[in-house]
Design a protein that fits this description.
The protein has helices at 4-8, 42-63, 86-99, 103-118, and strands spanning 15-18, 25-28, 36-39. It is mostly helical. It has two domains: 4-63, Double Stranded RNA Binding Domain (2-Layer Sandwich), CATH 3.30.160; 77-118, Arc Repressor Mutant (Orthogonal Bundle). Helix 3 (86-99) crosses helix 4 (103-118). The longest helix has 22 residues, at 42-63. The protein starts with a helix and ends with a helix. This is Antitoxin HicB.
């Protein structure tokens, strides 16, 4: 079993959301269920998040609760197979050709453009 300091040194993903209604910022750690905090400024929220992470891990160790390690990019190959209608395939090929890039690069551009939209 790892120690508190070993878990604290791991890079857990943080989700930071600006609270439009109340003001300030809310921070959570998706890999540490229920570990959430807030702060009036981003700086205070970040400090509170570090403290919340430490206390969450400390309590989990004391209670014998399983602590998941952070998700790693090594778990993802960067490839997936996608079946699409022929008409969409043609459209993507035509657009990428007009842009002077490969269809793969064009699809990555479209996916990343939409991913940014959904993460706001």
């Amino acid at each position: 079993m790892k120690t508190l300091n070993e878990y604290m040194s791991m890079s857990y993903k943080m989700e930071i959301i600006e609270d439009q209604d109340e003001g300030g910022f809310v921070i959570s750690y998706p890999d540490l269920p229920g570990c959430i905090t807030c702060g009036e400024t981003i700086e205070s929220a970040m400090q509170n998040a570090k403290d919340a992470k430490r206390e969450w891990i400390r309590a989990a160790l004391e209670e014998g609760i399983e602590i998941y390690e952070p998700d790693s990019l090594e778990n993802y190959s960067g490839q997936f197979k996608l079946r699409i209608p022929r008409s969409l395939h043609r459209s993507l090929a035509e657009h990428s050709q007009r842009e002077g890039i490969s269809m793969n690069q064009y699809c990555v551009y479209l996916l990343s453009k939409n991913d940014v939209m959904y993460s706001k």
